[in-house]
Amino acid sequence: MTGVRHVYECPVRWADLDMLNHVNNVTYVDYLQEARVDMLRTHAPDARADDLAGGPTEGLVVVSHDITYLAPIAPRSVPIKIEVWVTEVRAASVTMAYEIFDEVDGGERVVYARAHTVLTPFVFADERPRRFTPAEKDALRVFLEPREAERPERTEPRHLADGHYPLHVRFSDVDVYGHVNNVKYFEYFQEARIPVVERITAGQDNSGVGVVVARKEVDYLKPIHFRGEPYDVWSWVSRVGSRSVTVESEICDGDTVLSRAKVVMVFFDAKTQRSAAPPEPLMARLREFAARTA
User: Fold this and answer.
1) What is the pLDDT of residue 28?
2) DSSP-based three-state secondary structure for 173
3) Measuring CA to CA, which residue among 225, 238, 242, 130 is closest to residue 181?
4) Pfam families from the entry (predicted)?
């Protein structure tokens, strides 16, 4: 039996756009959060379950995000639609699925991204997860469309000197619970990845070919808090394809891993708006970095 799907109409702001005049890949996860919270607030069965949408003492915290980017979102004056449903309900976690889309003439759907998020109910005062109540499970199962979960593959971490980035947390990154909001992690990995890739490819001619993010997976292991000293972000190239490169990263506090990410980027020609093959010397430099070990 197919469950109900919640549809949220999300405004697109000018500040969401990047230098390619598309919605930045980081902003998509903000849209997912908006849609998810709207679903929970609309359909929570009682006051306690309403805490899941972001109450003062309890809420759902993100365990992992997996986003596949299918088409760019251009500037627009009308909201974009986001469909949300549930693919798995377990004792202490729920997996939600999303589709960001437009409906054009004739009811045809243009899909910009698909995503999955694993969340767990969390008691902030005790800094611990908890199990769902029967009422919460019943409310979530209304949206259930079972799907087998895909487990992301990760390579062994490589802490290379030129793959290091010192991450400073801003006070505005912290949410009402004293943790860095899950959306900000996407910004952190982007912030760390760009200078690392620039160092790797310094002096190489890219012939006008840039990159766009095709897929991003983020695992949340431990909370990040505001503090004066920076955290360490380590990034390495784990795969180089003919028109793509995969960069993996982790945010660390000393020997403790706080979050991991895997990003697949496709080389892109802004003039043709299509994938493009970059110059071979640039690809050779990326393959050289991918072969290095710590």
Assistant:
1) 97
2) helix
3) 225
4) 4HBT_2
Element (H, E) at 164: strand 164-167
| DSSP label of 23 | B
* Domains by residue range for the chain, with CATH: 1-151 (3.10.129.10), 153-294 (3.10.129.10)
Question: DSSP letters of the chain?
Answer: -----EEEEE---GGGB-TTSSB-HHHHHHHHHHHHHHHHHHH--SHHHHGGGT-SSEEEEEEEEEEEE-SPPPP-SSPEEEEEEEEEE-SS-EEEEEEEEEE-GGG-EEEEEEEEEEEEEEETTTTEE-PPPHHHHHHHHTTB---PPPPPP-PPP---GGGEEEEPPPGGGB-TTSSB-HHHHHHHHHHHHHHHHHHHTTT---TTEEEEEEEEEEEE-S-----SSPEEEEEEEEEE-SSEEEEEEEEEETTEEEEEEEEEEEEEETTTTEE-PPPHHHHHHHHHHHH---
Q: What is the DSSP letter of 284?
A: H
Q: Residues 277, 281, 282, 288: is their CA dihedral positive or negative?
A: positive
- Enumerate residue ranges in the chain where pLDDT < 70: 1, 44-56, 149, 151, 293-294
Per DSSP, the three-state class of 281 is: helix
Q: Compute the chain's Rg from CA coordinates.
A: 20
Q: Do 64 and 117 meet the contact criterion of CB atoms below 8 Å apart?
A: yes
